[in-house]
Amino acid sequence: MKNSTKKLETDRLVLRKFKEDDYQAMFDYWASDESVATGAGWPKHENPEDTKGLVKMWVDEYKEDNVFNWIIELKKEHPIGSITVVRKDLGNHTCELGYNIGSKYWNNGYATEAIHTVVDYLFQTGLFDVITAQCFEHNKASIRVLEKNGFVKEGVLRNRYIVNNKKVNLVELSLLKEEYEG
Ligand SMILES: CC(C)(COP(=O)(O)OP(=O)(O)OC[C@H]1O[C@@H](n2cnc3c(N)ncnc32)[C@H](O)[C@@H]1OP(=O)(O)O)[C@@H](O)C(=O)NCCC(=O)NCCS
Fold first, then answer.
1. In this structure, is residue 2 part of a structural domain?
2. What totals of helices (H) and strands (E) does the chain contain, helices first?
3. Per-residue model confidence as pLDDT tens digits over 94-133
4. Which atom of ligand 1 is nearest to the CA of 30?
């Protein structure tokens, strides 16, 4: 499926493909944000050049089929985060979501809104019957946004990640297409 990262709109957000010149906004609004990096489990970016290389790689990836990677923009403002299919298994019709919102913008319902529209679109593509996500067990906000979108806890992967030299559990959640369609 070419052009998989279709432009999507919600009441307050536009979700669109990354462009190469989005790197500075990504750096400023979430990639250099310690709280975002810690919650998601990647090292925060120390300078915009780190972000530039990553965004260039993502833009190149859009040439491939079935790449789902959106920048999340506040309407008439600027980008505040991203939402991405971080893993997919087309044979088994499953994929895993990852998402980030800059901490200045937390608790306004933006991630919930973005996940809602992306889930709807991913099921509509016909490629996926199960959408999963993994969160640190202590990342209550992330678990909450998934549950608000109908995701159900599958289980806990014990000591599956090391954050600040401490072993932490991961929680896996999933949403089945048949549950979503009710
Ligand atoms: C997880 C994340 C994307 C949520 O973004 P957001 O735009 O703030 O999410 P929303 O505003 O849509 O929803 C947040 C929900 O979590 C709740 N919440 C926030 N902090 C919480 C906490 N410490 N304990 C329990 N609930 C919490 C909010 O109250 C809200 O629920 P409500 O609407 O029922 O009140 C954002 O915190 C983030 O980017 N974190 C860092 C990166 C990350 O963790 N990514 C996910 C990796 S799996």
1. no
2. 6, 8
3. 999 999 999 999 999 999 999 999 999 999 999 999 999 9
4. 39
